[in-house]
Amino acid sequence: GAVVSQHPSRVICKSGTSVKIECRSLDFQATTMFWYRQFPKKSLMLMATSNEGSKATYEQGVEKDKFLINHASLTLSTLTVTSAHPEDSSFYICSASPPFGTENQPQHFGDGTRLSIL
Amino acid sequence: AQSVTQLGSHVSVSEGALVLLRCNYSSSVPPYLFWYVQYPNQGLQLLLKYTSAATLVKGINGFEAEFKKSETSFHLTKPSAHMSDAAEYFCAVSGTGNTGKLIFGQGTTLQVKP
To answer: Which of A94, B10, B25, B81 is most exposed by smallest CB count within 10 Å?
Structure first.
């Protein structure tokens, strides 16, 4: 079945550091990937839609200069948290689906990245 | 606009008992609905999906869900709970406009007692 790989699984770093998270579709091409943020005991909040070869589409209230998204190939999207601060600490999850119609194709999720900013 | 409401943030059942997790949706168009499960510190795994082919949908791990348009519901059930079913469960609806976006409910934590 479709597999999405996310790396790293956990990051602990100092305040002010920029952190890059990778999301790869391993056995299919994904023109669109999604980035979510999940707070403890909370649901997933969609941050942005990553579009291969074009700019990402950010949800309202998400700072695009803070959360840089690059989707340079059909199998890789990256999320960079720039100058991270403790309030950016969270669980970040990506998802993707094969491009054969999108409304009824399930999203396949990565295993998430636990980001902790000290 | 589409939305999903999961009734009950926490459900506790005994091992072997019926599991019922409630989900109601709001959608201006025929919805595509999904149930996902999340284990601690992991991503989401698809349990099942409704895409208008059949109202009773069977998924993995013995779960199933029934789409009821009149009640705008898509409740998840399992006849007999296992300890391994303890996890967070999310109901989601696919956004309009063929974007692939998912709109998630608030999640329900399922606790299974021995």
So the answer is: B10
Work out the average pLDDT over B83-92: 96
Number of alpha carbons in the 13 Å side-chain half-sphere of residue B107: 17
Residue of chain B whose Cα is closest to the Cα of A93: B43
Going B30 to A37 to B23 to B13, the CA torsion angle's sign is positive
Q: Which residue of A has its CA nearest to B98?
A: A103
| Diameter of chain A measured on Cα atoms | 42
Token pair, residue B8, equals 């009950």
CA distance A81 to chain B (A): 19
With contacts defined as CB-CB under 8 Å, which chain B residues touch A34? 100-102
Q: What is the DSSP letter of A59?
A: P
pLDDT at A31: 84
Tokens of A16: 């002010």
Assign B62 to helix, strand or coil: helix
pLDDT along chain A (118 residues), means of 10: 87 96 91 90 89 90 95 92 96 84 71 95
Q: What is the mean pLDDT of chain B?
A: 91
pLDDT for the residue A62: 95
CA A51 to centroid of chain Cα atoms: 12
